[in-house]
Amino acid sequence: MLKIFVGTMYGGALDVAEQVKPLFEEAGYEVAIFENPSLEDLTGSRTDLALFCVSTTGSGDIPGNLLPFARALDEQSPGLPSLRYGLIALGDSSYGETFCGAGRQLDALLEGQGAQRLGERLEIDAMETFMADDAALPWVEEWIETQQLKVA
Ligand SMILES: Cc1cc2nc3c(=O)[nH]c(=O)nc-3n(C[C@H](O)[C@H](O)[C@H](O)COP(=O)(O)O)c2cc1C
Q1: From the CA of 97, how far away is ligand 1's center (Å)?
Q2: Which residues on adjacent β-strands are paired with residue 57?
Q3: Any idea where the Flavodoxin-like domain is (predicted)?
């Protein structure tokens, strides 16, 4: 099972999740998208691979729908040594230092639990990319290819 965890305010990150879903299905995965994720969604059943699609709000803050997940990760500290994941962060470089702050925070939390990020984090800048999908789709195609994520 490939699980996509979404953090969004206005739906852009959810749209990315929905657009990339078929690419993973073509690669042989059963895919679930979690719009209001809990930690249990990650740890309670088998997760072959996870993808986080996360925008930033406030000043580098995690969107409200993903806060319970992030807090539980921090407070319960479940340890995730077998988790492999990718991360797509949506942000806007006009916010300066807090650019993609939520994606970076989440990445650090996951790393702190021993999870292994496959490849680099994708950071999509709304100043440069009007439709986040335009950046996310080719990135996911390449991610699947270079990380050899296709399953038979
Ligand atoms: C009130 C507000 C605060 C924001 N703060 C940040 C920020 O601190 N850093 C950043 O990179 N982007 C920030 N953004 C930009 C959003 O992350 C960006 O537009 C993103 O594409 C929104 O995705 P969504 O539709 O999934 O919510 C902010 C946007 C708004 C409206």
Answers
A1: 13
A2: 61
A3: 2-144
Does residue 131 register a pLDDT over 80? Answer: yes
Give the integer Cα–Cα distance in Å for 124 and 118: 17
For the stretch 75-93, pLDDT in tens is 999 999 999 999 999 999 9
CA-based nearest residue to 83, from 28, 43, 136, 40:
43
Are residues 62 and 54 in contact, defined by beta-carbon separation less than 8 angstroms?
yes
The residue among 24, 62, 63, 54 whose CA lies nearest residue 132 is 54
**99 CB near ligand 1 (under 6 Å):** yes
Rounded Cα distance, 86 and 139, in Å: 11
* pLDDT digits 0-9 by tens, 45-66: 999 999 999 999 999 999 999 9
Q: What is the 3-state secondary structure (H, E, C) of 72-100?
A: HHHHHCCCCCCCEEEEEEEECHHHHHHCC
Helix ranges (H only) for the chain are 12-26, 39-43, 67-76, 101-112, 132-146
Atom number, ligand 1, closest to the C-alpha of residue 101: 9
Please state the CATH superfamily assignment of the domain spanning residues 2-146 in this structure.
Flavodoxin domain (3.40.50.360)
